[in-house]
Amino acid sequence: MKKLNFWLPLLFAVVMILGMLIGFRLYPSTSTGGFFKTGKLSPVQEVLDIINDKYVDSVQEDSLSEEAIQGLLSHLDPHSYYIPAVDQVEMNEDLQGNFQGIGVEFQILNDTVNVTNVISGGPSDKAGLQVGDQIIRVNDSVVAGNGITAEKIKKLLRGPGASMVNLTMFRDHVPKQFTILRGVIPLPALDAAYMIDKESGYIRINKFSRTTYQEFMEALEPLEKQGMKKLVLDIRGNGGGIVDEAVNMADEFLGNDELIVYTEGRKSPRKEYHAQRPGSFETGKLILLVDEGTASASEILAGALQDWDRASIVGRRTFGKGLVQEPFELNDGSELRLTIARYYTPLGRSIQKPYNKGREAYNEEVIDRFHNGEVIHGDTSNIHSGPVFKTPSGRLVYGGGGITPDFFVALDTTQISRNVSALYISGDLNNFIYEYFIRHQAELKQFQSPAAFYTGFKKDAEVWNELLAYTKKDSINLEGIDPVNRSQVEIRVKAFLARFIWRTQGYFYIMNQTDPVLIKAMELLEANNSIPTAVKTN
After folding, report:
1. What does each C-alpha distance from 156 to 102, 117, 133, 146, 232 come to in angstroms?
2. According to the model, what pLDDT value does residue 34 have?
3. How far apart are CA 319 and CA 293, in angstroms?
4. Are strands 98-101 and 183-186 parallel, antiparallel or unpaired?
5. How many whole angstroms separate alpha carbon 531 and alpha carbon 310?
6. Which residues does residue 81 pair with via DSSP β-bridges, in sequence order?
7. 353 carries an active-site annotation
8. How far is 332 from 61, CA to CA, in rounded Å?
9. How far apart are CA 230 and CA 195, in angstroms?
């Protein structure tokens, strides 16, 4: 026992030293010297450490690190990016499909926050807020007459779920107090869903968030019950989002275990996504509307349906993003979204446009389409230098540079007059429409649907004259503008008035009545020519 007591401390010391050595081997020290040095720091970390330790002035180490990260990523593809911890919540809200808030839309008019919409069933609706209310104070913060910005008011109104916010409002010049319990506010992915005629339905999707597929299915079923046999699916301006949501939607149009998309990268083995269940709309006629704002997950959907001859694509060439990002959470709560693979359409197309000329040239490529006339003529011969593929019906489809539509529809290049441009830029149009709605909302709300409003509202000339008088105070003279410009302003006024009552459903219903891309799609459906055998132009 005496011998054991003698050697026990020494044994403990040896075990401790071995443990420290093993630990430092498993988790390398960031120290540049010392007995337990396990390897050299990277030059980037070494420079950051020296600056932080020796630089003449104090520096923000976090800012330096962010700049270094951004510098590294600038040499990769344009879609690998870094999200600082402070921006994480806001960046993820759009993909999540909701946020925590009070459930109002607002517009700042004459330095005052005006409520322009109260989400039905939301916290503000339950508290009794109304369109036209003016927010004067949020808790202890005055938000009127002091240069309040939309970003500031948004931060004041949003907050943790179940937390309270106290509002002081003006309603008809009378102050009112409201206490609102914040809750979950949806960010809808679906803008509109309605029947165009007895057999044709229309659905517009603005993004692929975690609620997109569910919203789509909830819209599809009632349209089918109304007799829909043809569908126009509008994904113009849809910048993508969650791939699984796009795959699930494609599954509703495809069957028989058909391949929808596959991904593959240098360190990422091939992963295939197939149709897995009977689809709700596998046989009806289908047309997709696309443009240069259609990207990523939206292009996965369009590419799959085009490759299988399941749908025709109408509009203009899509953005051309065929890269897959994986999120990596960092120790400080920030996130790196790194491109790890490319995605390929069922025929094996990579539709990623080139990015070898740098990020600036990549980001300006869409603008170049306006300068080189592509959005008018649809000529993509300088883009499609890669392989050409054939669909089962013999259609030619292309890799690289996005999804080329089967039927091209040129951008409306009607020259906007200088005064109409001034009207849009100044914000006068939005302010006028809001004030007009507040004065006439009882009359406007008598219309039961956007369709009834479009055909039944007969005061276009009266509204136009009021707009002329309203804009003259800001020296914007709309008198004498050509009929085309006037009709464009009038349809916009009508669409925004409809939005106050029916939100995006009303807005897009009105705007679609004169939309050349939708008109072309309907011509194809009516002529039973929705699946072409060759690329055509209009």
Report:
1. 10, 18, 17, 15, 40
2. 47
3. 6
4. antiparallel
5. 8
6. 337
7. no
8. 13
9. 10
Instruction: Give which of 67, 26, 29, 31 is closest to 46, Cα–Cα.
Output: 31
The token pair at 270 is 């091939």
Q: Which of these is catalytic: 296, 312, 334, 350?
A: 296
pLDDT score of 333 more than 90 = no
Q: Please state, as a whole number, how many other Cβ atoms lie within 10 Å of the Cβ of residue 25.
A: 11
- Is 312 one of the catalytic residues? no
Q: At the fourth CATH level, which superfamily is domain 190-405?
A: 2-enoyl-CoA Hydratase; Chain A, domain 1 (3.90.226.10)
CA distance 176 to 167: 8
Q: Which residues pair with 274 in a beta bridge?
A: 259
- For the chain, give every domain's residue range: 43-74, 98-186, 190-405, 418-520
Residues of the chain with pLDDT > 90, as a percent, come to 66
**Beta carbons within 8 Å of 492's beta carbon, 6+ residues apart:** 429, 511
Contact status, residue 111 vs residue 142, Cβ threshold 8 Å: no
Number of H helices, E strands in the chain: 18, 22
Give dist(CA 316, CA 443) in Å, integer: 39
Give the residue among 376, 485, 371 at the shortest CA–CA distance from 422.
485
Q: What's this model's pTM, rounded to 2 decimal places? A: 0.88
Torsion (CA) 487, 493, 497, 499 in degrees, nearest 10: 90
Phi, psi of 43 (to 5 degrees): -55, -35
Alpha-carbon distances of 321 from 22, 198, 239, 341, 403, rounded to whole Å: 45, 36, 9, 12, 10
**Same topology for domains 98-186 and 190-405, yes or no?**
no
pLDDT, one tens digit per residue, over 22-46 is 665 555 444 444 444 455 667 777 8
Round to whole Å and give the CA distance between 292 and 307. 19
Instruction: State the DSSP H helix or E strand holding residue 92, giving kind and residue range, or none if neither.
Output: helix 88-96
112 bridge partner residues: 109
* Alpha-carbon gap, residue 353 to 397, rounded angstroms: 15
Q: Torsion angle, CA of 298/301/304/305, rounded to 10 degrees?
A: -120
**Cα 434 from chain centroid (whole Å):** 25
Cβ count near 360 (within 10 Å): 8
Q: What is the pLDDT of residues 108-159, one digit of tens each?
A: 998 999 999 999 889 999 999 999 999 999 999 999 988 899 999 999 999 8
**Distance separating alpha carbons of residues 21 and 18, to the nearest angstrom:** 5
CA 167 to chain CA mean position, Å: 30
Q: Active-site residue 58, yes or no?
A: no
CATH topology of domain 98-186: Pdz3 Domain (2.30.42)
- Which position among 207, 230, 285, 321 bears the catalytic label? 321
As given in the structure block, the two tokens for residue 27 are 């988790």
What would the two tokens of residue 464 be?
């136009």
Quick one: pLDDT at residue 433? 96
- How far is Cα 188 from Cα 191, in angstroms, rounded to an integer? 7
- Angle in degrees, 0-180, between the axes of helices 428-444 and 483-512, rounded to the nearest 10: 60
Q: What is the pLDDT of residues 341-381, one digit of tens each?
A: 999 999 999 999 999 998 899 989 999 998 888 888 886 66
Q: How far apart are CA 529 and CA 161, in angstroms?
A: 51
User: Which residues share a beta bridge with 108?
Assistant: 113
User: How far is 254 from 309, CA to CA, in rounded Å?
Assistant: 10
